[in-house]
Amino acid sequence: MNLIRFEHINLSCKNIDASRNFYQTLFPDWYVRAEGVFNGRRWIHFGDRQFYLALNDQNEQERVHHSYENIGINHVGFVIKDGEIMKKLLEDKGIEYYTMSAPETKHRIYVNDPDGNEIELVEYNQNYALK
Q: Distances in Å between the alpha carbon of 29 and those of 22, 51, 57, 115?
């Protein structure tokens, strides 16, 4: 196989600063890796050394995809260290979330970013082999 790693997700944003602030809240260690303007629109690569979100300013556009109702990506999952700390952070920041359970996970937390993209935050059980 020629794959080295999964590197980035490219997201169009209604408000690029609101999106960056939202993801900064979830992942405080992330930083702006690169930024610029292309065809008159701002873009930001926001993440860490391994992975980033390519945020693109599309403030005149409207969302057309509805998760679980259309063909397309329904959510993006991130593995986290501590679900209890994440839930407290979300509550303190007034960010709505819901949870689900599964045998292999200690926490499965779902939030929507400012553009309606669903994010799953997963803390796996210690004994789960594929964590």
A: 13, 12, 22, 22
pLDDT digits (tens, 9 = 90+) for 77-126: 999 999 999 999 999 999 999 999 898 999 999 999 999 999 999 999 88
Range of the domain at 118: 74-131
pLDDT (0 to 100) of residue 129:
77
* Apex 125 CA angle, 121 and 129, nearest 5: 110
Residue 80, both tokens:
């986290």
**What is the rounded CA–CA span in Å between residue 84 and residue 86?**
5
Please state the domain count of the chain.
2
CATH number of the domain where residue 17 is located: 3.10.180.10
| Contact present, 111 and 96 (Cβ < 8 Å) | yes
pLDDT value at 51 more than 80: yes
Task: Give Cα 70 to chain centroid, integer Å.
Answer: 19
CA distance 126 to 131: 8
